[in-house]
């Protein structure tokens, strides 16, 4: 099961099968147990990176050795043919991406995946290059430090289109693909993770191309309220 933290129809069905003997549960067999939260110089290191609603930002980091065990390559178009790790996402996100891209194609919209999973080491290399070019403070406005990147969760994908030559930039928001993604991604469990005018909350610049899988229930609520993952999780505590 996807770890959503919510009791929904899927959870009810799963538990019914377990309680009636139709399903045998072997705790810990599929995903490894993570230790209790710890802190590093950048904040809390989250204890369960497999949580679909895990919050990864400048105050909540992933363990440096975390690599999702369920990474797969979704059946969606990419603007490159190399079999690179950035084609991969976790299984729940992969299924949702396939459905979303198929729906977009039916509407005459050509979505392409550009960058999914990214390892801690790869993010460390990227951030170092950006920091050397623009300085750490400037780089941290548009790029995550290692451990603080959603790409390491395997639940995020940067989306692009032919209209911007498969680049990743702010012009994507004005393409038909960018507009379609903003309007429909929540129907498939995704959110625009870094929305416009929310920089004071997410601490990152607007990224029309970066979608994060959170499940349909959370995605619809976040989009309806024009909010962020941070605000949504805070509302669950009330």
Automatic annotation (TrEMBL):
Annotated Pfam families: VanY (PF02557)
InterPro entries cross-referenced by the UniProt entry: DD-CPase-like, VanY-like_core_dom, VanY/YodJ_core_dom, Zn_M74/Hedgehog-like
All residue ranges annotated as the D-alanyl-D-alanine carboxypeptidase-like core domain in the record: 87-216
Domain of life: Bacteria
Protein name, per record: M15 family metallopeptidase
Organism of this sequence: Tigheibacillus halophilus
